[in-house]
Amino acid sequence: MASKAVKKIVNEKDKNIRKELYNKYVKEITPKHNWLLNLLKAFLIGGLISLLGQIFINIYLALGADMELAATYNSLSLILLSVVLTGLGIYPKLAKFGGAGCVVPITGFANSVAAPAIEYKKEGQIFGIGCKIFTISGPVILYGIFSSWLLGLIYYIYEFMIKK
Fold it and tell me: Please, are residues 41 and 101 in contact by the beta-carbon 8 Å criterion?
């Protein structure tokens, strides 16, 4: 069915009709999304990750850590759990279900580093893992550092040049 529609579009000589056929074809094959359901799934998964983080913090506080150390251990625990679940193939399924609820927290960033490393490990340590590990997270790191630098520069100019 799809190949007939595509052939009909490609073989159409009139630009306007071809454009109209193409738009109709795209509308037919584009999946319909329920934004409210996606929102609820993201809220549920993001909330569960946050709840897990709070549980980790409470455990570390109960073990005698101060709040700063408990928060640090919490971050490390969530990162470790995310990497392990990525390696087991569970985190991608969770991310497919929860969408942005899995991507936004620190666990999503850990997943974005671990997933390419796991995917390209068969190509070796250097050309596989070494070259591909930051393909997804690299731009986040780059723009995070650049944004921090830019905001620091603006703050410096404001504090030491304009304010005086």
Answer: yes
- Encode burial over 82-113: b for 16+ CB neighbours within 10 A, e otherwise: bbebbeeeebeebbeebbbbbbebebbbbbbb
**Number of C-beta neighbours around residue 40 at 10 A:** 12
In sequence order, what are the residues at sequence separation of 6 or more whose Cβ sits closer than 8 angstroms to the Cβ of residue 50? 105
Whether this model's pTM surpasses 0.70: no
Minimal CA–CA distance to 107: which of 131, 132, 74, 133? 74
- What is the DSSP-derived secondary structure letter of residue 135? T
pLDDT digits 0-9 by tens, 44-91? 999 999 999 999 999 999 999 999 999 999 999 999 999 899 889 999
